[in-house]
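Example 3.
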Amino acid sequence: MNILEVEQLTVNYEKTSVLWDINFVVPEKTIVGILGPNGAGKSTLLKALLGLVKPISGHISFFGKPLSEVRQKVGYVPQRSSVDWDFPITAFDLVLMGRYGKMGLLKWASKEDKEATRQALSQVEMLQFADRQIGQLSGGQQQRLFIARALVQDADVYLLDEPFAGIDMATEKTLVDLFDTLRKKGKTIVIVHHNLASTETYFDWLILLNTCLIATGPVGDVFTQQNIWRTYGRSSILLDEAAIKAKNKTSGLL
Amino acid sequence: MTFLDFFTDPILRPSTVGCMLMCFASALVGVVVFLRKRSLIGETLSHASFPGVVIGVFLSALLIPFSDELIALAILCGAFLFAFLGLKALNFLENRLRVKADSALCFVLASFFGLGILIASRLQQSYPLWYKQALTFLYGQAATMTNMHVIIYGCFGLVILGFILYFYRYLEAVNFDPSFSETLGIRSKRLDEMMFFLIVLAIVVGIRSVGVVLMAGMLIGPAVAARPLTNQLPYHFALSGLFGVVSGFLGNYLSVVIPKGEYSLPTGPMILMVSSSFCFLSLLLAPRSGLVNRYVRMRRFSFQCAVENALKSLWKEERRSFSPLIRWQLKRKKWIDQSRHLTPLGKAAAENIIRLHRLWEVYLVDYMGQKVEKVHRTAEELEHLMSPELERELTELLHNPRHDPHHQPIPPAHVEST
């Protein structure tokens, strides 16, 4: 079954990158990577899926329904740099915000809400930092909080914008393991990503994007030299090749 | 005159209580505006309300010249209307004409305020008494408040308090992360409308006591003063409110007490001075980020470095004489004895520092690929900022080496540090 279906999506809004006639599906229980160069419209695509950016045309459905009917089943992790980390709240408060959709804005947090928050914090190994102000945490720890905030929502599909940007190795490992566990529980995870090196190990399904859809499908079929060339253009391929060559030269392999 | 007189004296009480209520309300609103990073919007809207105040005075002077309370209400309505027009003008400039936010704020502030002054001057010729009344709203006039004013402002203050309590979660979530809130189904676009509503309420309450010119300071001052003292939003609101109330009271108190009857000091500016002093003191003395504490911590660390370096040079037998302060500290830590020789405790401490220094050198050369002759200087700094956990990790990572890159032996870890 397809978790997400996108037909003829076009976005051309002043402040965002352009997206042109995008069609793809995302099957359930997969980890999906959205890849493309800077300015390709990766974040814009996520925002359009979530209704944060209004498309000019196109049809988007989650679980065969429009987003407004299944909002609570779709979790979002924005880019870490999109918020002000000086904001006076603790790690616990931040994660608790993931429950606001369910609990309503006018109620006190119930025992259940608090328990779910603590559980999500321990899932990302952040329970010991629950009372810290969010600005005192490292980049990796902040990213873990963002993930935990999506986890307490208990959604079925998660959309993450560059979760691996500017974090430490230990956090990256924790997150990759966590995504794997989530998939085993039947969740679907869509990740905007930019590092080609880890693509094959992290993802089952790919969406290659550069304003238009370049290719989509299982990672084995899609992640070919030719597709990457078409996505990233000749210039970046050249640079990558040069970098590999330089490395081999200096280590005496060539 | 005692503190209590300000709450019992029939002349002092209305102004004191009125100012405290007003400062409380605007301090709460200030937190929302401050976190939204739109501090200047208060400044602009309070100036924009001035023509409304003047027109309110003018119309009520013509139609209902004998009722003070009704005039007060007419002024509030006028202020509200023009603040609203100011906001519309602001949105129009920013969204339709694509003027940058700061220019739009300046433009609206100046043009509306200028309009107010023009209307007021016209008033001056025919109604000099009402002209004076309108001018009191420039810098505020707390002293002439009556009990009825206090009741009106008290009600407005309660509305603001209730509103913030009721929408607390909304304000928190949308102020922090509007896109995420939107995906939860929380309509983030309402925030600016709510903020406007709160600001205008605070302004119409506040201009009577501090005036349109100083109003923005009253909005932001307590919020800025409270921020370094807490990292939690509920406390930020509470502290800001407290600073507001105290500024309101002290402003009244000082403006009465300082002059000793010879001349009079205006209450509004005095309130502002008190709240600015809170800001200043808070930025200076806050426990974590305050300037004084940071300076003390800096000095303490450099002293610690000096003492540890002295200890090292004793261990290496390079130097024996140190400044009295360092000697005193070495003795206090029982690192040297009366004859200025290292005690066993001092020897252990010195070896630990040497060990850290050399471990860092190994790390810098082996893991960071730095040149052997360049690492000494970096290690010299790093050796002073070591926690036992970091040392353990470093030792494990490097497989507890015996020699540093300069082929000097690395002293083994001491029992007490492991």
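The interface with chain B takes residues 47, 50-52, 71-72, 74-76, 78, 82-84, 87-90, 93-94, 97-98, 100-101, 105-106, 133, 135, 149, 153 of chain A (CB under 8 Å). Strands of chain A lie at 2-11, 19-27, 31-35, 57-62, 74-77, 157-161, 188-193, 205-210, 212-218.
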